[in-house]
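Hypothesis: this fold can be encoded by more than one sequence.
Test: take the structure tokens below, design a sequence, compare later.
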């Protein structure tokens, strides 16, 4: 893995190091956030009261789960619509942490369609503060290259994150979809540079995972016609990424549902000698071995269903078969912030209240976890 000095001493980083805009964003963005109204004190236990596995202050949700409510027209619906109303309802339910999935809403909502500006972020921050909500991250877009234009856009994203008071900035995509070690090595190098740049803004850079990220790298054996390796030494893609990125700068958000899908699906690899080797993934063991690398979780639940290719069907939190009580006990609570997510929560025109109803049910079930 590259050391801190390796990253800092590379010609690329010297050439594209902190520029005046980045330094300005890191200072003025945080100052603007601090100048906004202080968050009111949050009622309820903040620690492990009564054996609570997820303290009240850490119960969160990603807004992708209620994206139908955020995006619908408040002038044509009796239900909470747009960021301001949805954040207020989530606060009333009891959520205290928010993860954004972009900053767009219906044009008729307060603030207009696109709040991905300093002014829009200031407005969002005022609504978060009014509800006693802490924004933890955003599933945004991470530069695919290190050009000056891309880095300048990344600096602007960090400026927005600072106004919102985020601790983390990230993406909902895997670092790469490739099966080959060379592509993962290149992704790790790029993320090390971006992670250091994010740290210059006071932020932790994170990637999200899907089950494919826990498949095995093709890193050995006979080459195919294109010269690519066809077999594996048994190293999973995201585990390689962890080992080749700087723990001071690059972090992960484990989607616990997709990690369990990986446990169900990706159970063997073809070794260099052509033999099949069984290897079952243990999500909690990976987190426990590198606990500080996982500041965020997606606490997504699922019902086991062997008729499905993924082995699970998404459900509200606590209504599925993923053993969250055991998982949270095994990984501990000190460094982790679980955001409930359910991709399938929106009910469409036939059940317009469904995603927020599921949000209430999921909060109740998360609150009930004991250990």
């Amino acid at each position: 893995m590259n050391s801190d000095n390796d990253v800092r001493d590379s010609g690329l980083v010297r050439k594209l190091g902190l520029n005046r805009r980045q330094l300005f964003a890191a200072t003025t963005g945080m100052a603007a956030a601090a100048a906004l109204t202080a968050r009111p004190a949050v009622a309820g236990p903040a620690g492990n009261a009564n054996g609570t596995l997820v303290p009240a202050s850490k119960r969160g949700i990603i807004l992708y789960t209620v994206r139908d409510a955020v995006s619908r027209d408040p002038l044509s619906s009796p239900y909470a619509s747009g960021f301001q109303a949805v954040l207020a309802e989530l606060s009333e339910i009891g959520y205290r942490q928010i993860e954004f999935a972009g900053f767009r809403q219906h044009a008729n909502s307060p603030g207009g369609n696109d709040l991905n500006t300093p002014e829009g972020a200031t407005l969002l921050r005022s609504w978060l503060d009014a509800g006693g909500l802490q924004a933890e991250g955003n599933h945004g877009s991470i530069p695919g290259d290190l050009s000056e234009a891309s880095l300048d856009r990344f600096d602007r994203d960090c400026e927005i994150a600072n106004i919102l008071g985020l601790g983390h900035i990230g993406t909902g995509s895997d670092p790469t979809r490739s099966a080959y070690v060379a592509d993962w090595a290149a992704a790790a190098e790029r993320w090390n540079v971006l992670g250091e740049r994010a740290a210059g803004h006071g932020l932790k850079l994170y990637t999200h995972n899907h089950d494919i990220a826990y498949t095995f790298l093709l890193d050995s054996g006979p080459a195919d016609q294109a010269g690519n390796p066809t077999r594996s030494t048994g190293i999973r893609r995201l585990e390689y990424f962890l080992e080749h990125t700087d723990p001071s700068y690059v972090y992960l958000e484990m989607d616990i549902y997709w990690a369990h899908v990986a446990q169900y699906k990706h159970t063997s690899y073809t070794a260099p000698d052509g033999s099949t080797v069984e290897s079952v993934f243990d999500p909690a063991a990976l987190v426990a071995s590198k606990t500080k690398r996982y500041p965020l979780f997606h606490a997504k639940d699922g019902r086991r269903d062997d008729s499905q290719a993924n082995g699970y069907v998404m459900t509200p939190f606590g209504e599925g078969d993923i053993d969250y009580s055991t998982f949270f006990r095994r990984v501990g609570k000190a460094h982790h912030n679980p955001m409930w997510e359910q991709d399938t929560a929106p009910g469409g025109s036939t059940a317009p209240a469904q995603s927020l109803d599921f949000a209430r049910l999921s909060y109740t079930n998360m609150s009930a976890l004991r250990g």
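Residues 1-47 have pLDDT under 50 and may be disordered. The two ends are 36 Å apart (CA to CA).
Hypothesis status: open.
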